[in-house]
Amino acid sequence: TVEDIESLRHGRLSEGLQKYTHPSAEDRCFSILFKDHHKHLDLMAASAEDARRWVSGLEKLVSNMRSLSRQTKSEHWIFNCMRKADKNEDNKMTLKELKHFLRQINVEVDDTYAEELFKKCDKSKSGSLEGPEIKHYYDLLTHREEVDVMFKKYASSEGHMSARDLLTFLLTEQREQVGLGHAVTLINKYEMDETAKQTQYMTKDGFLMYMHHEDGAVLNPAHSAVHQDMGQPLNHYYISSSHNTYLTADQLKGPSSTEAYIRALMKGCRCVELDCWDGSSGEPVIYHGYTLTSKVLFRDVIKAIKDYAFKTSEYPVILSLENHCTVPQQKLMAHHMASILGEALVTTPVSSTMPTRFPSPEELKGKFLIKGKRLNKLNAVFSNNNSAEVDSVSEEDEAGDSKENGDKAKPKKAKIQLAKELSDMVLYCRSVHFGGFEHAKDSQAFYEMSSLKESKAFSLADTSGPAFLHHNMDKLTRIYPAGCRTDSSNYNPVPMWNTGCQIVALNFQTPGKEMDLNQGRFLANGGCGYALKPEFQRDPSSQMNPSSLSKGPWHQKKMFHVMVISAQQLPKVNKEKHKSIVDPLVRVEVCGVAADNASKETNHIENNGFNPMWNESFRFLVHVPELAMVRFLVEDYDSTSQNDLVGQYCLPLTSAQNGYRHVPLLTKRGDVISSAGLFVHLMLLDTK
After folding, report:
1. Rounded to whole angstroms, how far apart are CA atoms 535 and 527?
2. How far apart, in whole angstroms, are the C-alpha atoms of residue 501 and residue 493?
3. pLDDT tens for residues 445-466?
4. Distance (Å, rounded) from C-alpha 160 to C-alpha 197?
5. Contact 450/235 with Cβ under 8 angstroms?
6. Helix %, strand %, coil % of the chain (to 5)
7. What are the helix (H) ranges across 291-326?
8. What is the per-residue DSSP string for 39-53?
9. CA Rg, the chain, in Å?
10. Which residues pair with 272 in a beta bridge?
11. Which of 25, 191, 209, 234 has its CA 20 to 30 A from that of 677?
12. Distance between CA atoms of residues 487 and 386, nearest Å
């Protein structure tokens, strides 16, 4: 269905189309990419005009579907299930079809209740529901008791909430600091009854619409756009970063693909990795060296990056080069980047004099930075002290370890010849060996950065937390997964963010808690891939130790109250089993400094994925709220095996709104489950 479409690509962008079609068919080709399971459909139209119409038409349908309100999506989903249940397509529903429909919407209803509901709606006593009877049945089914209670509590007249009533609700329950004008704005925005709107009243339907939109959502709507100061130096931000971006599966034999770069960039990733090797045809290729992973042309990857880098975010993209090429193919790499990226590639410093700090994301909008080896210091750019055309640099991994693919045959200090053309493209991200924090402080320029594998980084975080934090106040640090993670699994990024590390690189192709946290970390600030670090991670006078709870401006103890009230329209996990119904439970997790990590869960509810209700309350003591993330998980309880994930949502604690809030749910790969959601009450309060 249209809802299953993630995006469309016009042109011969997929590997299948590149392999099986001629370049002359470029304008006639297009691909449809589907959510969640990385499948896509490659098509070739009869003409370029036909292809353009297909792509624009489908994009319009997808856009219209996404712009539907949650309420409308919910109705669309329910009526779609009704249509499937109407086996003989007579626009009527018998009791048997009703039971089939209830299974479709993930509700296990005993026969007695199903018959009661059926009789209540079958006013004509015809033995089937039609027209208004189906509408009555739908209204009974979608009745939200918990929303009714709230509405009645604040509506001073029957069935209507005045603007002042709504303001009282916003001030009392939602803890929003707003005036009467804001309440009127919400009525104009969400009320569907024109008469009520003109008299500045909100009906129950309008109130439900408000609860299901961004103003009633858990994410502060001000944070869904870029709202942070983007004029700080680049190293003052966490930067959404991908490891071995070219892989779509595991590290040993999985496919490499330009599509993997497109997906990462479209998810807001701002630092991608290119593992470059000599290609047999004279053209450099990208793949995981010394493994059976497939190869993709360096040139094709750069083209894909150019086309998709700034569709989701206009802020700079860092190309992290792992260069294993000979000099002739390095020169080709430099040529391709210069010719394809053009003026978007930063090849000279932003300032006219020798810089002493990084430029800001704002200054680098729409630009590409190259991270890699450089033959000389940056001040050579200003002193006409040109290096040789070719020289040797260490090929050791930037951390001083052998490359993470586990190749033990090469000596650690092997030398590689470096072409001047490629070297000169490296300005603000020069890769250097990490020799310790003292060495870095004394000898390392701000633009010289090290990459640390996770074991080294976690050890440093445990033993030298304050030094690590201060190192990251004027330099960039990249963290990457251990080589033993051949299955492309990920490490927990939170402790690395706690020490101020900016480029915490993860395997974007691997779903799980770690990628949920990454998506949550960069959900705020408009999902632009840059999140401003807290002041105490940027201020040189800060004495914070991420491993301990010493007193300081970072220590702002809060009590986080969470009431899990209900869920709506949870998808069936096992769609193959016709009678399979979800037994949902909700887990709430707080992830931050070690003292703040906690997890609590509700009881499970048997056989109800449509409208389960818990009304269970939890409390979390949070010491450093600016580093805390909150993650909601809905799971299908199983007493004999591991619970299955139904949906999840993660966001920074400081971006969560107080009060009664709707929590959207995402699949394990981060796609929105259009009709599903959680209903919660949140309160973040100061505590002594």
Report:
1. 20
2. 9
3. 999 999 999 999 999 999 999 9
4. 11
5. no
6. 35, 25, 40
7. 298-308
8. -EEEEE-SSHHHHHH
9. 28
10. 319
11. 191
12. 44
Widest CA span in the chain: 94
CA distances from 165 to 214, 681, 683 (A): 20, 19, 21
* Residue ranges of E strands in 258-414: 271-277, 285-286, 296-297, 317-323, 368-372, 390-394
Sheet containing 40-44: give its strands across: 5-10, 29-34, 40-44
Q: Say whether 2 sits in a helix, a strand or coil.
A: helix
Amino acid making up residue 521: R
pTM of the predicted protein model: 0.84
Cβ neighbors of 61 (< 8 A, separation 6 or more) are: 2
Q: Which of 236, 243, 662, 681 is catalytic?
A: 243
650-671: per-residue pLDDT in tens?
999 999 999 999 999 999 988 8
Exposure string over 599-628, b if 16+ CB within 10 A, otherwise e: ebbbebbebbbbbbebebebebebbbbbbb
CB 301 within 8 A of CB 255: no
Whether residue 66 contacts residue 2, with contact meaning beta carbons closer than 8 Å, is answered with: no
- Integer Cα distance of 209 and 450 in angstroms: 50
678 membership: H or E segment, kind and range: strand 672-686
Name the β-bridge partners of 219.
656
Tell me if 288 sits within 8 A of 275, measured CB to CB.
Answer: yes
**Is 288 known to be catalytic?**
yes
* Model pLDDT, residue 659: 96
| The total number of residues written for the chain in this structure | 688
Report d(CA 469, CA 537) in Å as an integer. 7
- Alpha-carbon distance of 291 to 324, in angstroms, equals 14
The helix-helix angle for 111-121 and 95-104 (nearest 10°) equals 120
- Per the DSSP assignment, residues forming a β-bridge with 666 are 648, 672
Alpha helices per DSSP H over 362-512: 380-383, 420-423, 437-443, 454-463, 465-474, 494-498
CB 475 within 8 A of CB 440: yes
Q: Which DSSP category does 664 fall into?
A: E
Catalytic: which of 160, 212, 223, 288? 288
Residue 602 DSSP code: P
Q: Which of 561, 521, 590 is nearest to 661 (CA)?
A: 561
* DSSP symbol at 27: G
Task: Judge whether 570 and 586 are in contact, CB under 8 Å.
Answer: no
Running along the chain, 688 residues long, what does each successive block of 10 average in pLDDT? 82 84 91 77 92 91 71 62 73 79 62 72 84 75 83 89 95 95 94 88 89 92 96 97 81 71 93 94 86 82 95 97 94 97 94 90 97 90 67 55 40 74 95 94 94 95 93 96 86 96 93 95 96 95 80 84 93 69 94 95 91 95 95 92 93 96 93 88 90
SS (H, E, C) 108-169: CCCHHHHHHHHHHHCCCCCCCEECHHHHHHHHHHCCCHHHHHHHHHHCCECCEEEHHHHHHH
* Amino acid at position 448, single letter: E
